[in-house]
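seq:
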Amino acid sequence: MARLADYFVVVGYDLDKRGGSEGQGHILQRFPEKDWEDNPFPQGIELFCQPNGWQLVPERERPSFFVSVLTDINSERHYCACFTFWEGLDNPQLQKAEASEVDEDEVPGLVQPAQVFAPKSLVLVSRLDHTEVFRNCLGLIYTVHVDSLSVPLETVIGNLLTCVIPVAGGSQRTITLGAGDRQVIQTPINDSLPVSGSSVAHLFRQLGIVNVLYLFCAALTEHKILFLSSSYQRLTDACRALLAIMFPLKYSFTYVPILPGKLLEVLSTPTPFIIGVNSFFRSETQELLDVIIADLDGGTVTIPECVHISLLPDPLLQQTQTALSMVLDPELEIADHAFPPSSTQPSTLKIQDKEIRAVFLWLFGQLFHGYRWCLHIIRIHPEPVIRFHKAAFLGQRALTEDDFLMKVLDGMAFAGFISERGPPYRPTDLFDDLIANQVERIRQEECSPHKVMNHIKELAEQLFKNENPYPVVAMHKVQRPAESPGHNDPKNLAIFPPLDDVTVQLFIDHAAAKLKIAPPMVKAELNGMVPSGPPLGDIVDRHGHVLANSARRLEVVRNCITYIFDNKMLEAKKLMPAVLRALKGRAARVCLTQELNQHVLQNRAVLDDQQFDYIVRMMNCTLQDCSHMDEHGIAAILLPLVTAFCRKLGAGITQFAYSCVQEHMVWTNMQFWEAMFYSDVQNHIRALYLEADGGGASGPAAGGQELLGALELASEQSRLWSTLSKEQQSERVQKEESTVFSQAIHYANRMSYLLLPLDTSKNRLLNRSGIGDVESVSNSYVTNSIAGSMAESYDTESGFEDAESSDVANSVVRFINRFVDKVCNESGVTNEHLKALHTMIPDIVQMHIETLDAVHRESKRLPPIQKPKLLRPILLAGEELVMDGMRVHLISDGREEATGALGGPALLPAEGAIFLTTYRLIFKGTPNDPLVGEQVVTRSFPIASLTKEKRISVSLSMDQFIQEGLQLRSCTFQLLKIAFDEEVASDLAEVFRKHMHKLRYPQHVQGTFAFTVGQSGKTLVEHKTKDKNQSIKTLSKNLVKSAKRTIGRQYVTRKKYSPPTWENRSSLQSELDEDEISVSEELDQGSLTLSSTIRSSDRQTMSNVVERACCRDYQRLGLGTLSNSLTRSKNEPFRISTVNRMYTVCRSYPGLLIVPQSIPDSTIQRISRCYRQNRFPVVCWRNSRTKAVLLRSAGLHAKGVVGFFKSPNAPSAGPSQADSTSLEQEKYMQAIISSMPSYCEPSGRNTLGGFTSTHMSTSDSSDKLRQPKIGALMKQVMGGKEDVPGTFSRGALGQRARVISLSQPRVSGKARNPPGGKWGSIRGSGRLSAYNPEVGNRLSSKESPQPNGGPSEALFLRQQRAYLYIIGDKTQLKGGKQDSFQQWEVVPIEVCDVRQVKNSFKKLIKACVPSSATSEPSMTFHRCLEESEWMCLLHRVLQVSVLVVELLDTGSSVMVSLEDGWDVTTQVVSLVQLLSDPYYRTFDGFRLLVEKEWLSFGHRFSHRGAQTLASQSSGFTPVFLQFLDCVHQIHLQFPMEFEFSQYYLKFLAYHYVSNRFRTFLLDSDYERIELGVLYEEKGERKNPQVCKSVWDYIDRLNKKTPIFFNYMFSPEDEEVLRPYSFISNLKVWDFYTEETLSEGPSYDWELVQRGRQERLAEEVPDKPDTTTPKSQRHIVWPCYDSRSRVVPDAITKLLQDLQSLEAELGLPPEKWKDTWDKIKANQRAEAKLENRPSFNSSLLMSSNMSHQRRSQGVYLPESGVGSSINLAMDRETSTTSTPVAGRPSTSTLYSQFQSTESENRSFEGILFKKGALLKPWKPRWFVLDKTKHQLRYYETRQDKECKGVIELAEVESVIPGTPTMGAPKNIEEKAFFDLKTTKRVYNFCAQDSPNAQLWMDSVQSCLSDA
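struct:
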């Protein structure tokens, strides 16, 4: 029973205290005056009576009523019902005005009314919420006062204050206040359910469904909510409604439905709240940043930007919205029906209110079902203590990621819910029933809204019944004030009188006395056991959250564990990756823990090292995927296991699994430890009472039953509690307390196990914020345990080592102390026990540290197990290890092939070792994936090719350590991404880096591998002291001189060159004068030859110079011969000059140069100064047909440019130095022009003076026809800015296309047919030998300048062609004016700078070998390739080269004069020669080309390749690689024109950076002579293993294997190639993208061969049974196998078979080249005889069958997929052993015989055999077998299935036969023979008579042998 009203208060306007604008209220009277003991009087009521402030108003307002809610200090709510009316009083302002005549503050003109009205409030304070009853009571009091009824007010108030009603129970009570009134009060049946009237329905009406849901979620997730309305009662109702829908949770924060304006600062409180404020204060609420504002009048909810409201999880939100709309708007569903039902009105507001609440009740039923299964009961007596296991609840509901539920479970409301509803023995209500009995129903109805509605209606009915237990209510009778006409007349209204306290107090005392006498009411307590409802597990499983295909995975896990414990380690190892993958799933993890549990006996399981290792790995993997909160309880089940599994390390030293699984965040999570602790305590307390009840202690049962037992047991014990005696009660309390205490000690131990690192001596503290703060705990291997993370700081000052380890200890102690304090306080452990614990913990930790130290010591001694043994790499002769193998993991980079992403097994990551040798960096290891665990993975690159090294840190998936690693990039397009194993000390990794740098950038080029090879231990260069007085010049002279000397004379026997000592060199000085090779310039230039000027004593010395490539080539081209007699005719235009023999004119040029005959050496020395680096123009090639020459030089110096273009005839006062040089330069050009036959006049005058305009037009007609072509080309090459190479200028492309498609024109009889060139690929159509003259004329007559800003076409399409074109750099040639009389012309082009090449190459490498996989569209391979612009650069170089080829072919000479003359110039000049001269497309020619143009003419290989420390900063610039790529592009377009294969180019591309050979070291011949490496290559045969020249190596290899040879080589005479150079025609070179992981790069041939032999040797012993047929299938992995080896092309395969057959027959092996040449000769001969061009002959034939070759595009890939071309072909012409070459090995045909092939098949070939009657003759492959004595035949030669057998035993005779009907045509008669057997006669026909004779003889011999 409770009082209906605790206090009655009258509050009025305080006239005395009114200050400024705002008045104040004060309490006039209150009853009772004394506070009730159980309920003190609430403070501040006067504020709440007038929330907007106390103010006087000019007009009387109507009485108002509202209820505000106050919360007292005990969080009890007091409902203050305020009834306010207004009373008139004389205006205090007027009185004031009279008192002081004029007040300054008064505003004149404002007329003050004579009377004003002051508010007065009647307030009723109660703890019950009966709004309507309060309204009626206060209204009655007012009515009694206003209408002056006969009842004294004191009586009414006295009755009101003494009225007592029941709180709940569903009774009906009638009350009267003694004024003729009667009211019925209904109490709710169950007071735990809120009473809402119709407020919830109103709230939804005002705000709408979505808005209220937002508010609902906001309130549950503890946000601040503010309601605005101009009505106070609505504010109260809205707040009450929000609380009602939150049931069963109770709101426990600030709750003020009506906040007075004076207290508005409350809104800035940091805690959550639900507050209502009058709209009057709207402006003040605007600046609140984190408050959600709901405007009830406007129906809006405003959520600030910074507030994020977590909404309900998805399906629930949808279902809730649907249900709410069906309640509030039932018409919505049928709005579209054609025949809607007559009426579907929503229910009345009161019913609707309950339906809405039912929806929310149903929602909570769904959210919280199964919560009782996650309760831990940790104390039963004296009071139950219950804890909720949040993680388990979320885990089982599979809602761990759900933000909303997480916040709700963490909130205060839920904590209250648990403490209120957790106890298992208490009264139950509607919600308990819902959770216990209706979960199943809720789940089944989920998907059907109508069933949900039925359920909701049922719940609504119960809620309604709870509030209104009696439907028929007796009539209320309450008087209201009479609405008389004069009601508002102020004169009628008396002031509310003061009441008599004594009278009222008497009533109260009287009632109190009555209560004392009355017998106490005993209310039966309806406590009972709370049912738990269905367990969670089943529900989730039916939802299908279990992993698919889990049964198979669980099987794998079980098998693996069985294998481990059965010691079948190999099997376990194979299953391991599958297990680790499976352990991603929850079911598998649970399965693992169950399986492991079975192997624990008496809390212990001792394993051997390998088992221990595997178990730990599995545990780590299991924990790795657990979150820090361990929602699936996996870590909880593992906790006892990690302290059970152990291994013996030594005497009395055991290492437990926990020391290896500390790296997981879960161990640092305080909540995890608490949950674990509580669950263990619960089990022990349960066991305590089970024992007490006589049941034997049962072990912890499986999850569900155990929990059920605990709660049921607790409920039972709670029920019995009151029946126990005091002693029994205290005994139980004490037992429980001891249980908790003992568990606390146990957990202190457990926590120290998992938090103390194995190695406590090392201070591995990461300065991370405190432990348990999840975000701060990163998973880094720097600490071996999280414990390290717990120290806030440590004392670095104290120099003691102990300080550090104790710091780990301190932090662990602090953590455990925090834990112990929390759990012991919650579970009521006594203070003494708590103190004991605190003293114990440091000892426990210290003791454990000591144990760990011993374990750590021993574990370090253990040999590391299970790591694959390190594989040793095979080294080259002379290659030595610098650092032995360091164990590393090779991580996969951005190339997907090896990771299995494109199919196939994952070869990477692999585990192995990295080796650093003097030559290479090698990784060798095995893949981590056991499916390919037997394979070997090798990645290596020459140390000299390292371009970038970067440190990285890598996380290896298996052992979550973050490891240091390196990423090493090489310009051989390789990337090594390695992570050092934990066994590699970090200082060792540093040593490795230093060594690597030392080897990559040696001090001097002599430190490179090519020089140091085989010189182990010796110092590389011995520096002797040198005389200070020697000048550099004499030094260099001496050096060169003595070099030539020594090579020429002394070292006939011992050829190795060792530089003479400095002393010797200086002594040679005296001989220098007589010995210098000098050429007197006075001699007649015509008769000068090299031989005549060199003294005989020096001929030998010079022979070496002459042997140099250049000279051999010049002789071939007829540019200058070296004969002893003076036979050379004087009119030879060029001579070999020795002006640079001492490298004094130009350091970077060769010693012998070709210059015009007419130019003396002195001129040359002067001219050379105009050119950069003194690289003056020299001739390097001459067209044998047009006699046009190709010259190369560097660009001009700036000063020379202008002079160069001065008009030659300009008069000058006195020839200055510059002028004379300029003239000489012109003379030089003129001399070159004069050398061309097309220039020379018949009379032979070729001087400058003899130049007339007639000569300008002597170009023959064919040349004129060619001009448009060149015009187009020039336009492209010189194209202005818009015509960027790489974008196709339309004009240029159009020109080319048009020119190509022209029809063959008629050429006049005189016109010489110009020699053909060919364009594009072998698909070209016919010869493009001439062009349409009309187009030529059209093009050449255009005079308009080009639109893109290039020079006008007329410039180079003049009718007369220039004799010499100079290809120069645009930037250099500005300002030169063209002179119409000069016969040379400048073609300005833009060249690519070396910087561009360098940057482009960097990007190219990153595109081809990305360091990490990326899915960004901007980072795809083709996008990156495009951005690198590598293809654009190739396009430019090829374009210029093709232009020069065209010019030379039309008879103009060309001088390439770009940059310093050693980069782009070299590329262009070499390509031009390669395209123009077929000789350079052979092995010898190409070698000569590279030696001449690249080596002799000084391409700076060392500088561009950054080969030494000095050139490190310049970076790697692959100019030569670019040239090789261009050659590769040409090779692709003309596969038949090159003698060498693509592999040859790759080989050079690899070795030009590898530094294995000396060929590509140093920057010029001068430097090579200085080091003595120029001529030694020829001698030096002491160590045949070490090849110093790449060319020798290639020669040797070419003799052994056809790998460098192009089988399609079939050149045409004098063929000029013109490749397409557009980007669309260029292909990415596969050298950049391919790799062979099985053996590493294949360019170190002997390594690969030895590796293959070793592999074969390993494979042989495994297969003794060779008789069984072996599968022909072989899987080829693109990035692993060497495709050219596994699937060789047809011809290679045949040559290989031939070799193996020769070996089998014991014949001496024939060189492959000889075999090949023989076959080609045979084919040619046959084709000539038969005139039957077969596919093969056209392939193998040379130019005599060129017409077919053009029409049939045959392309044999050099290493493609095998092709079925068979060289012995379709017609069997020979019966030698050659046709047998391609046959599969015989063992597959005859499995039961092991005899050699030669006797097995004595004879075989094709015969036509006559079929049965009416069947045709058919060719069959016949095999005569001596061994089996039979003649077998097959469909074809490849066929393995025998079609028939003729037993020779049955053969009677073999006789010549005659042709019968249907026999093959065109075969002579003698080719027929018959075979007669005992059964029938066989008719055969051979291809010709000799063949038939052979067959007959063979059969006969077999018969006679038998």
